[in-house]
Design brief:
Layout lengths: L10 H16 L11 H20 L3 H5 L16 H4 L7 H8 L5 E7 L8 E8 L9 H12 L5 E7 L1 E13 L5 H17 L10 H6 L1 H5 L5 H4 L7 H4 L5 E11 L11 E5 L10 E5 L2 E2 L4 H19 L46 H23 L2 H5 L10 H17 L18 H24 L12 H10 L2 E2 L8 H5 L3 E2 L38 H5 L9 E2 L1 H6 L6 E5 L5 E5 L8 E6 L2 H22 L1 E6 L13 E7 L8 H14 L5 E7 L1 H15 L3 H17 L3
Parallel strand pairs: 2-3, 4-6, 4-7, 9-15, 10-11, 16-17
Antiparallel strand pairs: 1-2, 4-5, 7-8, 12-13, 13-14, 15-16
Helix pairs in contact: 1-2, 7-12, 15-16, 16-17, 17-22, 23-24
Amino acid sequence: MTKPVDPLSEFEDLRRASVSYAQEASGEIWTDYNVHDPGVTLLEQTCFALSQIAYQVSLPTRDLLTTGRGHFNAQDLALFKPRKVLSTYPVTRHDLSAWLCDCPGIESVSIAAPTEAEAGLFHVTIVPSPYSVANHDPEAAFRKAFADVRPLCTSLGRVEIAKPAKVALQGRVEINPEALPETAAAGLYHRIGQLLTGAHDPRDPATRADVWDAPERLLAPAQNRSAQSLDLTKHLARLRRLPGIRDIGTLTLKSLELRNKDARNPVYFQVALPRRDDEIGITLTLDGEPVTLSAARLREEFIRISAETIAEATHHIDRLDWDVMKPGRHRRFTHSHVDALLPVLYKMPYAAESDSGPDPAGLFGEYRSAIDSQLREMVDSLRHLPQSFTADPKHAVSDPVRHRLRLDLLDYLIALQGSAMPATRHSGLHSYMSTTARHRFEIAWRLEYLFALPTLKRGRATGPGPNAPGGFLAELAILCDLGLAQDVDVLTQPLQVYGLTLDPEATLAEDESSDKLMIVPAHNPFDMLVPEDDSLSAFDADELSNLTGFLKGITLSPTLLARLTDPDCFAISPHMGGQWLVLMDPGDGGTLRQITIAENKQEAQNTVNRLRTTWRQINRDAEAAHLIEHVMLGKTKAGQAHVADLILPGYTARCSMASYRSYVENRVEALAPAHLYVRVHWFEPSELVEVGRLANDAKDGAAPDKAALRAFLDARAAEKGR
């Protein structure tokens, strides 16, 4: 029976097994396996390291990452801190409340969690600010602010304005000997007023610890102000920390108004300030003895504290923002000259020349010459760095070395922001660009993304609003070189501007003269090829119609539309009388078609380049993205609220490429929030017209119109197996 092999976790076991393996591998070449042999020494070091690793792996992860006192020091372990690794904080309802409370005329906002019956809809209760101006509409301000920051695939449900219910503060409070009675009482009134309106919540937004350690806080139902706000016992610890307060005996709130319990509008309690001395319901005591309070003085202190709170809320300046350098460090300093860094031997004065030895002055000059030459080489290599860092460099993009350096530098700056440029080698992203245009685009593309990153990261998960496309859609548009369409009609508008229609069955017009073209042989065959020049303007609709005689009417096929963007589609040829023909090659072995006759070669080349620019512009202008969120189409179920449809044209030259479609779909999958499902649709013009009609009907239409749009999109997704 074979004896089971012991696990190689101990040093002696590892050493014994390693020596035997070395004997088998070396044969008779290595015959010394004693301790003094260097090979055995290295073998023992390796065995010791492996045994230590085996020992550490057997320990709990918590013990490996913390000290004996349970402290976690990422720097000692050469690890990134959790905040550096997990930098995308989740957007919670508390975060939305904190952001939306900055709306003018709003004191606080309570956002209820969406229910399964109304998934994706936030029901909001607004407490208006007591300091808002007259005739101010807090609901309108809130809806505008929510539209700018709303999370993707969410919308507003009910928006209710809470009504105030006056209450009087009663109780007994002990103050410190050095406290001013009216100031302490006014601070207590002000703080309790904040607690009752919920204004304290936005200053304590949810953090990552709340998501992982206390998720019940985020899932709790919205606070019922009318039932729970009267309970101040849970806030006593916070109230005791107010300036001048030593201890709090009892605190109660007495309602001053009769409230209808069946009222549907929510209410919030508002502490009524006493107008006369006999209306002061709170008793301040000093060493157990009551202190006389003045109602007028109390109101003055309350206004002063409220003004300070408003000022602090609009001036978030940290002390470190004012520190330019470390405290005590001089801002003026000079660099030592290179001579000061030389060894003492080279600084000593010597005679000019002696027969006893080498000339020290010559030695110094030789050393100094070597230093200067090295410094010149360093300066020459660093001289061009400012141009590489400049957004608009002076050097030409044709310099491949500087162009590559600039790309690497921009990629590094983008990586510092926690992002990376996607690989586009086989995506077809640059299919409309010449080599020079592509080089310019690679720089401009990265600069646009770099400058937009702060805004994109701040609102990465926001949805399209009236003033912004939303973080997800904006980032997708930059990385995929797409436009943004407010309506689906934009995706077919370029064809309509030029009076063109697409038909897969369309053919070229009959042209008997194509077989009789009088082409004069060129002296150089390369004269027929036209160098690309994208600086020329495009033709307008009337000019282009005179150059499309090869079409049958105004109809062309998607294949021909893609062919017309190919730079090899057009050529020129000498003609009789010094004129030049502008020709179109339809591809697939078709005969050349005459487009027009130019008076000279330069005019023919300009016509070809303007034709290239025009057809590429028609394709590019149609390549835009439009997002339809199902939550905007009426009531949605739990699964439907997290679905959105991205509408893209499928008929343009680039969008018909499988590589570009795969590139866009991969970007959507990488950029969309993980809990959302974004379906990508590549529609032909006829389908875009139908989607546009349904979307226009659903924009301000009834529930059946919205349901029809949703059913159409679901049917198209089912056909694609999505």
